[in-house]
TrEMBL record:
Highest taxon listed in the record's lineage: Eukaryota
Protein name, per record: F173A methyltransferase
Gene3D superfamilies xref list: Vaccinia Virus protein VP39
Gene: Fam173a
A biological process term (GO) from this entry: methylation
Naturally occurring in which organism (per UniProt): Rhynochetos jubatus (kagu)
Keywords, comma-separated and alphabetical: Methyltransferase, S-adenosyl-L-methionine, Transferase
InterPro entries named in the record: FAM173A/B (IPR026170), SAM-dependent_MTases_sf (IPR029063)
MF (Gene Ontology): protein-lysine N-methyltransferase activity
Amino acid sequence: QVPFQPSGPQQVANALALLQGRTGKTVDLGSGDGRLVVEAYKQGLRPAVGYELNPWLLWLSNYRAWMAGYRGKVSFLKKDLWKVNLSDCYNVIVFLAPSVKPPLAAKLLAELPDEARVVAGRFPFPSWPPSSTLGQGMEQVWAYDMKEVRRAAQSSAEGSPV
């Protein structure tokens, strides 16, 4: 369980700027009130799906989608992110606590396609090299391209020379 911390407008803008021009299924793991999913859809990322366990936040997400005119166009599902198969996801947004990052990194490495990009807000993945970053302080977001993450993991596992 991760406490809900709503993303500010600049965090949302920064996260989606790192997904600009991309295509394919976009998911927000722990989607909170749905603002990132709605904005992703607005910017052309489709399908756009949020996974959230908190029923109140799911209701709020669906209300937000309805207010934006996207009811039935975006999806918010009450599913445990650990039990969701992410193999068809090309854009993954993760604004979760640092304690969740190591086990989540293993899940993402195991399931995401090479072409996938992960955008982390608030806290980076500690062992992954970011492809790019945007913003400062609490507004900062990091993008990770899975092909580069796998290459770095493989070279460190092989004990590449210094």
